[in-house]
Every structure is written in structure tokens, then in C-alpha cells.
Amino acid sequence: MKVDIDQVRALMVEACRRSKVPAGSVDLVVDHYLLGETQGKSSHGVAKFCFESRFFNERQGSPRTVREHGVLAVVDAQREIGPVSAHYAVRVAADRARELGAGIVGVINTQRYGVLSPWAEYLAGVGLLGIVMNTSRADSTVEGARTPFLGVNPISYAVPTDNEPLIVDMSTTKSPMGVLWEARRGAAELPAESFVDPGGEFTIDPHVAASAMVFGGHKGFAVSLLIQIMTGSLFGFPMGPGVESTWTTGYTFIAIDPSFGGELEDFAKNNSRLVQVMEGVGTRDSQPFRIPGRRSRARVRTVTASGKLDIPESVYRRLKARATGDFVSD
Predict the structure, then answer these.
(1) Model pLDDT for residues 175-204, shown as the tens digit of each residue
(2) Is the dihedral of CA 78, 84, 317, 295 positive or negative?
(3) Is the pLDDT of residue 154 over 90?
(4) Strand, helix or coil at 241?
(5) Are residues 86 and 184 in the same domain?
(6) Residue 13's pLDDT band (cuts 50, 70, 90)
(7) What pTM does this model have?
(8) 288 falls within a domain
(9) Are both 186 and 259 inside the same structural domain?
(10) Rounded distance, CA 116 to CA 126, Å?
């Protein structure tokens, strides 16, 4: 169904008010999840806001840095709302990068956020190379295995150019778990070969699916495994089956200052030249080569100009319930 963006936003703001989100954080939280929706990542947009808003009132305080050593720092988010925790963490990472050349910040005890790209883009916007990643409960597995043992382990990175930052934002599973949750609510089929049943066989039945499938065979597994380590044991955080809840899920924010590597002025220009090379890549179907991040940006512009969102009626119903203070209905 088509709904005015302003109307959706007003309902989200009211839901935040009902769950006692601090006034200074409301716009940050609402705009974050609206961005995911306008990017076309519906599993990380309004639907995820409806899910995560059930935990907003569980926040115990503001994030605080509890350990620092060299370029590394650990943040106890004190169950803060996800976008607010990330907002704090990227600034800690940027500050350490400016001082030491790099900042690697691990965050624990936080609520979840939606898309990762805004945090990586923030770092690119201040001239740094930004990398953001997180784990989850053991919700994914690899081809040939029956047992889920990895988090879904998404990653985003961004670098400055002379224009808009070059941004990548991807899951290491073929489909995010949000697709499974929404399919169960709406009785829809799952994407083919993206989820497996308890026996490790592919299924499109959301009520049979037990875990998500990591992309790219053994090479995709290796990428997901690295993210698992960098959001887990690097900071002493739980990994895989050891992640028992939202509060034991690890997040990592990395900022790198290119000037410490001798690149004082031309980092953005060199990245722009790389983008120009990609723009000139020939394709078999004569269509423009797909450059990371551009499709999402174009969709944001189109949707914002239209003033309307196309969201499922069931999601809109949940959002209206949240705005009345009902954080239980699903």
C-alpha cells in the first residue's frame, strides 16, 4: 500500500515518544530506519523499526567507553537504542583515527540498528576509510552443513571521493534474516536457495527454514568467518552459539586515516579515478556497469521525491499499533 512518508514518519515519532526515547535521539532513530526503507531494504526499514521498538524502553543509559588500548576501544552501550549506539561508536572510532591513525571500536550490550551504510558513510564524509560490521546469533550456515554456527555477519565500507562516497553494504548471507521473519508473518515464500531446513536442505517454506545460507560457497564462508572474529574474539565478545541474545551481540566500527599512510591530499581523488574506471567498464548487455551504492542512492531520491512509501499493509498495521503504545502486536 502507498502511504505518505510524512505520515509514516509521524507514526514512528509517536512510537518513540510512547516508548520514552529521549527527545534528542528521536530524529536520529526515525531517520535511520526510514533510510533503510527508502533504499529499498524493507527488511531493515519500517518493519525492523516495528520489531526493534519493542526494546526501546529497555535502554539503561548512554553508551560509554569502558576499555582503551592503542587503536582499540570497547564500548558498553548500556542497552542503548541501536542507531544511538552506532552514532556514538563512529565518533569514538574517528577520534582515535585522527590521533593514532586508526580507530577500531567494539560495541556490546546494545540494541540493533538497521542498515550499516550510514555509519560507514559518516566516516568517509570526514575523510576516513570506514568499515562497519556486526554479528548476530548463530542464524547462518554454509553449503553442505546442517548446523547453524555463524552470525549473519553483514559488512559495510565507504571511502571518500571528489563527489559522493563510494559505499558497499552487504550481508554475507544470501538473504537477511528479516526476510524470513516477514515471510512468516505474511505467509510468503522465501527466495530460492537462501535458507535451509534443520537437515541442511534448501527450502522456500518460511515455517520450515531454520537458518540462512552464507553466499559464495567456501570463499563466502571465509569472509563471514573473518567478520565473526572481528566482531567477537577480537574484543572478547561471544561468537556463534555463544551469542545468546541482543545484549551479547558484537559490533565493530573501524576508521582509518589515510594521512598516516602518507596519503595527505589525494585519497579522495585516487578513489574518484577508480570510480571513473568502473564507469567505463563494458558490459555484455550494454547496460551501465553497476557501481556499489548508486542504485540505493537513486532509489532514495526517487522515493523521497514521490513523497510516498510502498509498504505492506501488515507492516503499516504494526506501525499504527506501535504509535498507540502497543509494542506486543505482531
Answers:
(1) 988 889 888 887 789 999 999 999 999 999
(2) negative
(3) yes
(4) helix
(5) no
(6) very high
(7) 0.95
(8) no
(9) no
(10) 17
Question: Helix (H, G, I), strand (E, B), or coil: what is residue 71?
Answer: coil
Each residue of 149-166: b (16+ CB within 10 Å) or e? bbbbbbbbbbbbbeeebb
Alpha-carbon distance 314 to 254, whole Å? 37
Return the DSSP state at 288.
Answer: P
**Facing residues of 309 across strands?**
3
Look up the CATH number of the domain holding residue 181.
Answer: 3.30.60.50
Total structural domains within the chain: 3
Contact 80/110 with Cβ under 8 angstroms? yes
Q: What cell was used for 214? A: 552464507
Boundary residue ending a domain (213, 231, 265): 213
Contacting residues for 256 by C-beta, under 8 A, at least 6 apart: 97, 101, 102, 128, 129, 130, 131
CATH of the domain at 52: 1.10.1530
What amino acid is encoded at 63 in this protein? P
Establish if 251 belongs to a structural domain: yes
> Which tens digits make up the pLDDT trace of 112-133?
999 999 999 999 999 999 999 9
How many Å apart are CA 106 and CA 94, to the nearest integer?
13
CA 65 and chain centroid, separation = 22
Say yes or no: 47 and 193 in one domain.
no
Range of the domain at 14: 1-58+308-330
Sole residue written with cell 546442517: 146
The pLDDT score that the predictor gives to residue 330 is: 81
In a domain, residue 291? The reply is: no
323 inside domain? yes
**Do 94 and 124 fall into the same domain?**
yes
C-alpha cell at 12: 514512528
* DSSP sequence for 76-91: E-TT--HHHHHHHHHH
CA dist 272 and 293 (Å) reads 14
Q: Say whether both 72 and 143 belong to one domain.
A: yes
Query: Same domain for 142 and 259?
Result: yes
Predicted confidence (pLDDT) per residue in 228-273, tens digit: 999 999 999 999 999 999 999 999 999 999 998 877 779 999 999 9
The C-alpha cell that represents 96 in the structure block = 582515535
